[in-house]
Amino acid sequence: MISAPRPRHRSSEHTTSSRPPVHSPPGQSGKTRLVSLLRHDLPASLVVLLTAVPLSLGIAAASGAPLMAGLIAAVVGGVVAGSLSGSPLQISGAATGLTVIVAGLVHQYGFAATAGITIAAGLLQLLLGLSKVGRAALSLSPAVVHGLLAGIGVVIAISQLHVVLGGQPQTSVLANLRDLPAQIGAHHDAAFAVGLVAIAVLLLWPRLPKVRLVPAALVAVTAATAVAWLFDLQLPRVNLPDAPLAAFTLPALPAGSASGIVLSVLLVAAVASVESLLSAVAVDRLHTGPRADLDRELVAQGVANMASGALGGLPIAGGIVRSSTNVAAGARSRASTILHGLWVAAFVLVLAGLLERIPLAALAAVLVVSGVQLVRLTHMRELWRHREFPIYAITFAGVVFLDLVQGVTLGILLALALALYRLTHATIRVSEPAEGDSRWSVTVRGSLVFLGVARLTSELRRVPERAEVLLNLHVDYLDHAAYEAIHGWCRTHERLGGTVTVNEDRDTWYHRARDSRPEQRRSLPGPLLRWFAPWSVWQHRDGEDPAVSAIPLPRDESMALDDSLLLGMHEFERSCAPLARPFFAELAANGQSPRQLFVTCADSRVVPNLITTSGPGDLFTLRNIGNLVPRHDEGPADASVGAAVEYAVDVLKVASIVVCGHSDCGAMKAGLSGGVRSGSRLAEWLRHIQPSLIRFHAVDEDTDLAVHDRLSVANVVQQLDNLLTFPLVREAVQDGRLNLVGMFFDIAGPRMYLVDQQSGRLTPITSGATT
Fold first, then answer.
1. CATH number, domain at 660?
2. Can you give the residue range of the structural domain that contains 470?
3. Which residues are bridge partners to 753 per DSSP?
4. pLDDT tens digits for 254-293?
5. According to the annotation, is 603 in a ligand binding site?
6. How many domains does the chain have?
7. Is 576 a known ligand-binding residue?
8. Are 498 and 397 in the same domain?
9. 580 in a domain, yes or no?
10. Residue 52: how many CA atoms within 13 Å on its side-chain side?
11. Among residues 526, 543, 560, which one ends one of the domains?
């Protein structure tokens, strides 16, 4: 019984899939949010606190600013930027990338004026965010981002390793590397022991079962602090101002040239924005939660910088060190960011004594491990496979040995250069005449612009004078310089006695330029490929295609071949045969070994290799009017079909026989109407449809299928039964060596269906059904 609806064209169909929301559902209960906050965000905020405090103090000290300025930046970065941030897991605070710049501003204008410059820079950031320019950071190459992360990780690890070893980090990576051997070989004091304890806990804690909910960094700092307290070790610890509230500095207007002040504002705004946006993009690659809204992030950074400057704090930017620590500690929402800012304020004001018990070596150990973890071999291997490793390497080297901005700039410039090379690099192949042919072949693929003219000219010079040349242009863009080079060479070659035929497949770039109708944009994917579409689509019988009309055709009337067929064969030999030659050579040497016998109708609209996406050697095909397989016991009158079946099963050892009917079949229509001239060979052949007609009339099916299509499906089932009358087929099926499969091809769809051998039901191939 046939129960499937009538197959129709499915161009308007689409499949929708539901994906789990990335954010928590809006209706999430308050209890669930509270549990998530207590389990994930609260511990993470404490870990970030332990990272942010020494980092903020260190940046303030290196900038020549009051130590409280760094802590104010941490509080404002956590509470203000965290509340408004477009990157919820990003931690903002004193900008690492601005340390040198701020130091220069403090030296030139004083810190109060620097705070005023910070306010102006924040206002500029706010305007940029409202102008929607932040999203441009999404265009950044992943290789640049991963190189940035790895470079920052190495910078942090090398500098903080000095602290773990009981020394002091230098101001540059080169200086730290220079002094590292001596630092390693020196006498190591209590700081080294505390640092080792912290590193051991950081490495071992995640491996312990059922305890990974507690952040390793928090456990490591706690353990290191406990060791230092128990053994009363004398070593450097966190040092806070004695009177925090008295350390505020009110902003002031800078005194100096207007141009210098404007340049300072632009510089602070630019570096802080770049550092924040790059950090946000990098943080997105560290977690699977919500993606960053970069425009909103830029607005948040602007508001936070205005607030920080007004309170006497350092310029603020999103920091990958604090942010990666936040993600690694298990933060799930912006609550961790905001809480960390509140903790900084609370500990500085209320529990400064407790913070001052923490050894700096323990904090440095956390930074060493975090920095090393930012260098990931998996990223390197992936970028190497995609040929993006040079971008990663130059960004990494620039960040390590220069600075963050210069390293990223170098990476972006190299990424742009490689992209330009790949987009404009054309493949040019010059082939000597094949045996039996007198023409040279020059094939150009890709985008042909002025950057490739020199190589194109060099390749064209390989063609000897007075040679007959076929120039195949498979290009999606041809600029004026490339056109002039090709056109000039063609004219020169023809003037010296040669001939040139220019053939274009994808678009007529050359011919339009020659006719003073040049195109300005790259070609989009063009019409159907020539070996896919009917001749009428690409041969342009109206003569408008100069590439086709330029093909010389033999005019021997005895051949009696249509021009379309000749053009098709020419196209095969020109473009398809060179590509397929290795496959055909292997088939010629090894013989055929198809896995299927494909029985289908002779209808010209049914193309077996097309609808099965197969190639030479895949299908052993049997085609006739109505895809009929007369029964074995009907005698030798139909020996041709029987011979093909037996050869496929007995000699080729095929694994399956497919009988494929189709919609709008003329044989089925003739079988229903009987409108075939009596006594003709066609009438004699169509008598084999009678068993299918009997099967068709025996089933009263209510379906949307047209009557002749219902007969076509019934005919497929009948031919499968007929195949079982062949002893070789029946024996192979019983032994499990052969499967019989029924199919139906809806031409209008186009769509393929499986036909159930017992019920005749249609099942779309796209449903995932199998035989």
1. 3.40.1050.10
2. 425-526
3. 744, 764
4. 888 888 899 889 888 887 887 888 888 888 878 777 778 8
5. yes
6. 3
7. no
8. no
9. no
10. 42
11. 526
Same-domain pairing of 434 and 406: no
With CA atoms as reference, report the closest residue to 315 among 105, 148, 127, 52.
105
Q: Is position 566 within any domain?
A: no
User: Domain boundary residue among 526, 542, 566?
Assistant: 526
pLDDT band at 299 (very low <50, low <70, confident <90, very high): very high
Predicted pLDDT of residue 581: 76
Residue 265 CB contacts under 8 Å (≥ 6 apart), including other chains: 117, 120, 121, 124
Cα 102 to Cα 590: distance, rounded to the nearest angstrom: 74
Residues 6+ apart with CB under 8 A from 9: 748, 749
Single out the residue of 322, 168, 298 nearest to residue 236, CA to CA.
168
Residues 408 and 433 in one domain: no
SS (HEC) of 691-745: HHHHHHHCCCCCCCCCHHHHHHHHHHHHHHHHHCCCHHHHHHHHCCCCEEEEEEE
Phi, psi of 251, deg, nearest 5? -70, 160
Confidence band, pLDDT 50/70/90 cuts, at residue 25: very low
- pLDDT (tens digit, 9 = 90+) per residue, 395-406? 899 888 887 668
Residue type, 615: G
User: Does residue 94 form part of some domain?
Assistant: yes
435 shares a domain with 392: no
Please answer whether residues 724 and 733 qualify as being in contact, where contact means their C-beta atoms are separated by less than 8 angstroms. yes
In eight-state DSSP terms, residue 77 is I
Residue 5 covered by a domain: no
Place of tokens 């020419």: 570
